Amino acid sequence: MSGPKVVELRQEGWRDGITALKQIIADLESGELEPIQSGVLVLMGKDGGIETFAFGPRGDDVTSLGLLRIGERIIVDSALGEE
């Protein structure tokens, strides 16, 4: 069993939330992105409200928490210019 694949944090061209989500769906449907085993989505509305979603066949609480931590590490590394 292989571990998670770490990819570049995409930022540029992803500022419009609806367009970004549609592009992710298109990438999944085209096969550019691998099928989802576990996913976590955190959204903040313009009034500061937070919505969280966990999904996929392995979208249980523990896996979702771990996935959030991995995502956090990727964002921190990207912000610090590390690879």
TrEMBL record:
It comes from the Bacteria. This is Uncharacterized protein. It comes from Halopseudomonas pertucinogena.
